[in-house]
Design a protein that fits this description.
Layout: E1 7-8, E2 11-19, E3 23-30, E4 37-42, H1 50-65, E5 74-79, E6 85-90, E7 94-95, H2 96-103, H3 109-128, E8 131-132, E9 141-143, E10 153-155, E11 162-163, H4 193-197, H5 205-220, H6 230-239, H7 253-262, H8 273-283
Antiparallel strand pairs: 1-2, 2-3, 3-4, 4-6, 5-6, 7-9, 8-11, 9-10
Helix pairs in contact: 3-5, 3-8, 5-7, 7-8
Length: 284
Amino acid sequence: MLAPGANVEGYEVVSVMAIGAMCHVYEARADGAAQPVAVKVLHESWCADEEIVTRFRNEASVLRSIQHPHVVRLLGAGTLPTGSPYMVLERLQTHLARALADAEGALPPRIAAHLAAQIASALLALHNRGIVHRDLKPANVLLDAHALDEARIRLADLGLAKVRPEARSDLPAVGHVSTGGGALLGTWDYMAPEQWIKSKSVGAGADVYSLGVLLFQMLAGRLPFVAEEPKDLMALHLFESPPMDRLGEQTPPALRDLTGRMLSKVPAARPAMQEVSERLDCLR
């Protein structure tokens, strides 16, 4: 744990923001700076795991290469004297998971489209660089304001991002991660059918599906598929049609149709992120 007052690249640690299974996140400030930053540090217990360390450093490399208004900004990266890698990131006020919990129900369709359009723009920027996020969920969508109709999002946490081999020449600092072919990568509630089968080889369509799940959740006030056991949740994502009637009459037909297509079981039947982005821009 970094103590208050510890210095990381000229930023002074103020307090602990979050303690996760793999990382600690701290609020820090530079001398005279009005805005705080977030310092994300890999826990020392994971520093001996080559795959985890490589993923952490790859995330920093990808963020360094992506300059986009809806992707969280990397302000610095390196290794602490203890051997733990770290990233210095812009700090935002809240995230979508907290906003959805506070809403306690469906969001107005215009607000849902407003937020989803920004997420689609960020994912499209990744896809254009040969990167698949693979872990889209509300907690990874940061917000710069509590008022959702005014909020601008930043997509965060690219620790599970997949960089296509042909794109690695544009990202020379990205290392190879030898994940087992059967490893599940992602957050179960938002994973595409093909991600349940073989996470390692998914394409951009998996992000389209995950955004479809999130869009459904914003419009319906609940996830399309809910189960207590992973095998039951997997079966729902693989075989059950999403309950589109849950969206209600307030959802415009064009937005309902787009959400349904994004949740298609077969990747080829889903719209490309370019189309998703364009259509959501027209609906926000």
